[in-house]
Every structure is written in structure tokens, then in C-alpha cells.
């Protein structure tokens, strides 16, 4: 479907640039736009790989926190490529500000796929402003470049969750084969549509008295959004149905909350539909409202660092309980088991504090003792359910060395 969506925008790009679809001109335009700005987007997005390991589902369909900064960089780069008059520059900046705002909002709902489809949409709309062809089309390809990296980088952790017999290469090959098959089908459908229906701008635009009427009746503006909606919805359902067996902050909190509340442990397959793909960093009250990943200097002052470390001197985590949440910082070599231990201490402490009739200064120690009494059977059952506890994927979360 992504290949299908790329056929019609290419015709729009050629028309907006004032070019006729000769092989040499098409090659030049493709190189400038795709190999130029798209590669810039790929390079910038590649710096966010650690976050993709932590939240592969979200980065496949949800949330790009650093899109706005990257897009601002792209805007500056694009403006430097072309001299603009003052009034054109003002109009361009206003237009790009609206686009960036939309990208930031949509990024919370679909990073890889919405960004790709939005980049395609900018290409389709490029005939509306042919004098800003380089800026609009370049920004579209920049967004598509980031989307391609996010989609490809998250395939491996998602495929890994299905590799029960160590057959990751076989799964990856079959997944790529299915993707290639549908890309070929989409390519054929796109070529058929472009050659029979959209062979000229007259075929795309129904004649009207005003330009806006022509745009509203454009076949592309009907087909492309519809295909984009189907595309994003399909990927959302695919990610919701995908079980991931590694521990990240959200899944760890959900596991601990369920165990503290009911004494049960869900498998990755049972937990998959409960994951929040929009706001995975939300705090879970039954898990102690734990927030992980903040910098050490934001959590504890240097004068109190040794005091916090001595509270659980044998552990590889620090806990600082506040009025709204509990901060947890892990040592640089902490594993998933260490994160589980810290999370359970915070959850038990929060539960004890809620049930206590009067404040107690020993709640943290009592919670720690309770965690130790149940952790061994808890860990054994957790591993039997298929969870990998040898590592904890907290993205770019800060860790400490003591």
C-alpha cells in the first residue's frame, strides 16, 4: 500500500516542478528529493534507536517525541537551499508552523505510518504551491525518511517476540516476503491508476470555476486519505495483537500492579491488549506510581545520595518516594530482575501507606522485606509465562554508577 501511495505523488511532484516525465528529469527529481532530504530524515531518526527498543509498538505506530526539533532543522535546511522574498518567507514559515503543529499532534498517534502518509500528502499537495515546490516536497520526503527508519528499526524486536524456537531469520524472511508481495501488488495497482485515470492533470482535476473546487474534486485527495486511514488502522490492529515479551517501564508496571492486586501474572499474549500505545509513560497507581528514567540530579541531591543508596545497599536501584510519584533510578548494569524488585518495593510501600491508619517511617523497609518474601516464586512464574527478565529496556532513561 505504501508503494501504491508513492506512484501518484510522483506525478504531482513532476507537474509542480514544471517538468515533463522524461526519464532523465524524473531521475534528477527523485535524487534531489528522495536521496537528499529523505536521507537527512533517516540520519536524524537513527539517533533515537534506544527508544525504539523500549517501545517498538509505539514507534511503529505511535509517538515521536523529537519530531518537532528534527522538522525545525529540516525547515532551516530547506530555506537555505532557496532564496525567498520576504513575503514568501513569512507565508512559508506560517505554513510550516501549522504543518509542524499537525505533525506533533499526529505523532502521538502514529509515528512511522502517519508520518509516511503525511509526507505523501505533502507531495500530492505540491501542485498547489509550485513556487514552494522544493520546500513542500522536501519536507514531505524528510518526514517519510524518518518514518522509514522508525518502521524498519522496530521490525526486529517485534519479530523477536514470535521467535519461540530461535528461528528469527526464518520469521524475518517470511515477513519480508509478505511485505514484498503486497508491495508488488500495490505497485501494479498504482501504475494502473496513474496510467489510466491520472495520466494528466485534467484526469486528476474536474474542471471548475475556482481552483479550490478543482482541489476538492481531485481524485487523489479522495483516494490517498482513504488508503492512509486503512493503512494506519491496519498497522494499529497489527501492533495491538503483537505480544512483546521484553520488560519496559509500562509492561513492568502492569505486571507488578496485577501481582500486588490479585497475586496473578499475565503472559505477554494476555497483556498485549492492555498496553497503552498512546501514552505508555502514564503512571499506574497500583504499581506505586513509579517514574523511571529521570536524571540523578533531578531525583536526589548529592548530599543525600549515600543515604538513599544505604537504604537498599545490596540492590541496584534507588527509590525516592514523593507525594505524587516514586522516582526509581537503576544502576548502569541493572537487569529486568532489578527493575522488578524496585517496582515491587514501591508498589508494596504505596499499598501499605494507603492502608495504614497513621504514618510510619519504616514503610520502605517493611515493603522491602515483603518483596523479598515473594520475589523468588514471583520471578519463577514470570519466566515460566515467557517473559525475558535478563534485561530492562528503559529507552534513554538515565542510570547511575556508584
TrEMBL record:
Signal peptide: 1-26
UniProt domain Protein root UVB sensitive/RUS: residue ranges: 7-63, 110-262
Mitochondrion listed as a keyword: no
Root UVB sensitive protein C-terminal domain mapped to chain residues: 274-393
Keywords carried by this UniProt record: Membrane, Signal, Transmembrane, Transmembrane helix
Keyword hit for Cytoplasm: no
Transmembrane spans: 61-79, 91-112
One Pfam family linked to the record: UVB_sens_prot
Domain of life, source organism: Eukaryota
Family per similarity comment: Belongs to the RUS1 family.
Protein name, entry field: Protein root UVB sensitive 2, chloroplastic isoform X1
Species name: Nicotiana tabacum
